[in-house]
């Protein structure tokens, strides 16, 4: 189970290639309370991804979320960065840490 921003970033960096092979992930970033260093015990982990066009499917989206939750031991709020609404995308852009 992860406990802080550095643990999550290290995990994402270490597993980026596996996520690319299994699910078609081409970019991944951490945002939200963990990225800001404001996470509490009950905080979820906010992660934004992009998936290669040929791999975009509901199954892959749910698969990557399940994979991240199992590996990180916390609930993951997963979003596809390019599909966020403009206001949300603007807020995420201010704090996202891409790995």
Automatic annotation (TrEMBL):
Reported cofactor(s): Mg(2+)
Domain Polymerase nucleotidyl transferase, first and last residues per copy: 13-96
SUPFAM superfamilies in alphabetical order: Nucleotidyltransferase
Entry GO MF terms: ATP binding; metal ion binding; nucleotidyltransferase activity
Xref: Pfam families: NTP_transf_2
Keywords annotated in UniProt: ATP-binding, Magnesium, Metal-binding, Nucleotide-binding, Nucleotidyltransferase, Toxin-antitoxin system, Transferase
Protein family: Belongs to the MntA antitoxin family.
Protein name: Polymerase nucleotidyl transferase domain-containing protein
The species this protein was found in: Trichlorobacter thiogenes
């Amino acid at each position: 189970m992860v406990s802080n921003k550095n643990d999550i970033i290290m995990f994402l960096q270490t597993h980026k290639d596996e996520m690319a092979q299994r699910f078609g992930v081409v970019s991944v970033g951490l945002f939200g309370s963990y990225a800001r260093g404001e996470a509490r015990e009950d905080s979820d982990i906010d992660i934004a991804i992009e998936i290669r066009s040929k791999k975009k499917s509901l199954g892959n989206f749910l698969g990557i979320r399940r994979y991240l939750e199992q590996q990180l031991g916390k609930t993951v709020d997963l979003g596809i960065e390019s599909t966020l609404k403009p206001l949300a995308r603007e807020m995420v852009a201010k704090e996202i840490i891409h790995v």
